[in-house]
Amino acid sequence: xxxxxxxxxxxxxxxxxxxxxxxxxxxxxxxxxxxxxxxxxxxxxxxxxxxxxxxxxxxxxxxxxxxxxxxxxxxxxxxxxxxxxxxxxxxxxxxxxxxxxxxxxxxxxxxxxxxxxxxxxxxxxxxxxxxxxxxxxxxxxxxxxxxxxxxxxxxxxxxxxxxxxxxxxxxxxxxxxxxxxxxxxxxxxxxxxxxxxxxxxxxxxxxxxxxxxxxxxxxxxxxxxxxxxxxxxxxxxxxxxxxxxxxxxxxxxxxxxxxxxxxxxxxxxxxxxxxxxxxxxxxxxxxxxxxxxxxxxxxxxxxxxxxxx
Length: 309
Description:
34% of the residues lie in helices and 20% in strands. The longest helix is centred in the last third of the chain and has 35 residues, at 213-247. The model is unreliable at 1-9, 253-260 and 268-281 (pLDDT under 50). The protein has a domain at 21-177: Cytidine Deaminase, domain 2 (3-Layer(aba) Sandwich), CATH 3.40.140.10. It has helices spanning 9-13, 32-46, 91-108, 131-140, 213-247, 287-308; strands spanning 17-23, 26-31, 57-65, 68-76, 114-121, 147-154, 158-166, 172-174, 176-177, 182-183. The chain is of the alpha+beta class. It is rod-shaped, with a radius of gyration of 66 Å.
């Protein structure tokens, strides 16, 4: 399957950075995310066990535009490793590869992509195409511009990557790494016209009938009069209570003490039976005159007692 032009590829490539390899009349641009993916798979296989690890591989997905091949994705191919730890395919593994290619093409075709080649990791061999690799390349990826990426984990140099591509005549060419990477930016989109801002609609408020000013004044005056009356009534009740507390409770009949009228004691009767009547005390007389009269009366009573004896 060969695809010369895809209209939607630039949008898919926007924002991605590509590592580039070139050959006469050919150019391979592989996304850095794809390189990281297949390099990590190669290192995982290398660390799976000692003495070279396990070699892995898979298919490459992308698009061809003119003489440039864009590698956009990769999917692993699980093989039985019936021929050892190297990436060597059996007949059953070839059937699995054919099924994976057919299934992947059906899935990515709506996006404008297709299977454009394959990759494999050499953990036990050099990072060059071997006879078994060329067999896969010739039988399953024989169309022009088909790509093959060979990786080799290396503790000193990281991951060694060699890229191969077919020319229009079908010959396999080894590419050379280009110095600078390429990053595709998304084409600027026209800014949408700014719609005028509509002012918010004012909601109708319910109509409230205003109270006449005269009725408001009359109501306020009535409230003031009622308040003054309440205050005055409370003041009168408070004064009355204070007065009752000061005067005390009224005296009762049982607590009343009979008081004798003020004045000299009653006259004493003599032996003869003649009682001496004392003159009543004039309240207008001074206290000195009253004391003198009392003294004279006592003297007379004393003389009367002597005579009686």
